[in-house]
């Protein structure tokens, strides 16, 4: 047997830029990897200890498919305390990371041919998940000259009678933009007027360095599905735990789908998540302060390199660096960078066509390695 026995959609996959770069990287010695958003930080020892104790106390079995009552309540309490938002347990679902929740939601809401608006540059799994769910992705560009903010007039022009949802990501991966509450309100008003869902990916909510974060559900609670996870703010990428918050009827439909997929999120990861949320005020600043310091250092170094530029980063853990002065596209630049300096980044084209003149650099290595990386980068010639 061979690949002709697989589904037709997977026999001739689209160009996979990330896979090609990863192959090059695997053959590179002395590599400094600034590509994937996997923090170099280890999960706080107190969270690990809490999960270990939970295991010894017998939390090694399935929870209810939507998550344990303790976990759901911890999420509810967190939003009440930090954002003054009130949710019921039947609105909250424990998920295996935020993307699991996004996929469940798309499978729940989309009929064949429904359109989902995605602002570009975008986190690449969004497109695939929409297509896998039978929908049609509709891309709407954002521009550096606008601070990578959504142009509300462009959004209006993208809405049709087939629009079922928009995916919003703020703080944004890859651009580092943070959408203002005023923009959130304008998007919410359009969703209410045209009756479409807002799928709000808020994984980087803690990484708003200069302003307070306001969740999208503040403005359109009946139209918003919120996704978040513990991966970034608590340095828990490998625990694979997140959650979604949705209208109860939608969460009930997602339950029926999920019980035939993962059934429930990992029990010990839920216990770790409970401790993390209950101690967020103490734990989160330890992580976010590290990334703010690193991103500010990256901005300083980029400013010293004539062929690079960087729009001010307001949030997330990434720098979306403009490489247009090199006269190379993002793939060619990334390959040159890897071969000549052994520094690995992600070409901006991986986040949509509007990223062709950018690279994404993840601040996921310490300042010593970041200094070494930029010492190498500044020696490049074009």
Task: Describe the fold and architecture.
The protein has 382 residues and is an alpha/beta fold. It has two domains: 3-43 and 282-377, Aspartate Aminotransferase, domain 1; 45-281, Aspartate Aminotransferase, domain 2, CATH 3.40.640. The chain is built from twelve helices and 13 strands. It has helices at residues 17-26, 45-56, 69-83, 98-109, 125-132, 152-158, 181-194, 248-258, 267-278, 280-303, 330-341, 367-377; strands at residues 32-33, 92-95, 115-120, 136-141, 163-169, 197-201, 224-229, 242-245, 309-310, 318-322, 343-344, 346-347, 358-362. The strands form three sheets. The protein has a seven-stranded mixed β-sheet, with helices on both faces. α2 (45-56) packs across α9 (267-278) and α4 crosses α8 (248-258). The longest helix has 24 residues, at 280-303. The termini are far apart. 46% of the residues are buried.
Annotate the secondary structure layout.
Elements: H1 17-26, E1 32-33, H2 45-56, H3 69-83, E2 92-95, H4 98-109, E3 115-120, H5 125-132, E4 136-141, H6 152-158, E5 163-169, H7 181-194, E6 197-201, E7 224-229, E8 242-245, H8 248-258, H9 267-278, H10 280-303, E9 309-310, E10 318-322, H11 330-341, E11 343-344, E12 346-347, E13 358-362, H12 367-377
Parallel strand pairs: 1-11, 3-4, 3-5, 5-6, 6-7
Antiparallel strand pairs: 2-8, 7-8, 9-10, 10-13, 12-13
Helix pairs in contact: 1-11, 2-9, 3-9, 4-5, 4-8, 10-12
GO molecular function: transaminase activity
Domain Aminotransferase class I/classII large: 30-376
Cofactor: pyridoxal 5'-phosphate
């Amino acid at each position: 047997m061979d690949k002709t026995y697989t589904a037709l959609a997977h026999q001739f996959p689209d160009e996979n830029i990330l896979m090609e770069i990863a192959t090059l990287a695997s053959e590179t010695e002395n590599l400094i990897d600034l590509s994937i958003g996997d923090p170099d930080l280890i999960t706080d020892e107190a969270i690990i200890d809490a999960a270990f104790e939970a295991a010894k106390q017998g939390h090694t079995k399935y929870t209810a498919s939507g998550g344990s009552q303790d976990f759901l309540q911890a999420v509810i309490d967190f939003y009440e305390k930090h954002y003054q938002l009130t949710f019921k347990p039947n609105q909250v679902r424990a998920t295996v990371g935020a993307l699991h929740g996004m996929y469940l939601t798309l499978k729940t809401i989309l009929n064949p041919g429904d359109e989902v608006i995605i602002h570009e540059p975008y986190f690449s799994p969004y497109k695939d998940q929409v297509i896998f769910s039978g929908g049609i992705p509709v891309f709407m560009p954002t521009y550096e000259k606008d601070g990578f903010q959504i142009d509300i007039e462009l959004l209006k022009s993208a809405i049709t009678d087939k629009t079922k949802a928009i995916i919003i990501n703020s703080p944004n991966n890859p651009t580092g933009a943070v959408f203002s509450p005023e923009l959130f309100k304008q998007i919410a008003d359009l969703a209410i007027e045209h009756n479409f869902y807002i799928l709000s990916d808020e994984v980087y909510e803690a990484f708003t360095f200069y302003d307070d974060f306001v969740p999208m559900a503040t403005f359109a609670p009946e139209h918003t599905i919120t996704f978040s996870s513990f991966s970034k703010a608590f340095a828990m990428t490998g625990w694979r735990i997140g959650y979604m918050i949705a209208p109860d009827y939608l969460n009930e439909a997602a339950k029926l789908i999920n019980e035939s997929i993962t059934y429930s999120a990992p029990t010990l990861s839920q216990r770790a998540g409970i401790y993390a949320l209950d101690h967020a005020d103490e734990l989160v600043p330890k992580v976010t302060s590290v990334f703010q310091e690193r991103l500010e250092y990256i901005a300083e170094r980029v400013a010293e390199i004539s062929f690079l530029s960087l729009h001010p980063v307001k949030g997330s853990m990434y720098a979306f660096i403009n490489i247009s002065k090199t006269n190379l596209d993002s793939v060619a630049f990334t390959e040159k960078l890897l071969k000549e300096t052994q520094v690995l980044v992600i070409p901006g084209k991986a986040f949509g066509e509007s990223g062709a003149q950018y690279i994404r650099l993840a601040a996921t290595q310490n300042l010593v390695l970041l200094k070494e990386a930029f010492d190498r980068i500044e020696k490049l010639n074009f």
